[in-house]
Amino acid sequence: MKKLQNTIYVKIFMGICKSCSQLLQTTNINKEEFKQLSQSFMQNAIIGKNILYASSPQELKRYMIFINSMKPYNLVIDGLNVAYAMRTKTEAGSLKPILDIVEEFHKKGQRVLVIGRIHMLWWSKKTMKLIQEKADTFFTKNISEDDPFLLHVTLMSGPQTYFISRDLMRNLKYKLIDPHLKNVFKTWQLSRQYLYKINKHKKTVELIEPISFEMKTQKSEEGWHIPFTCDTKLILPDSYSLPEKWICLKNKK
Question: Which pTM does this prediction carry?
Answer without folding.
Answer: 0.84
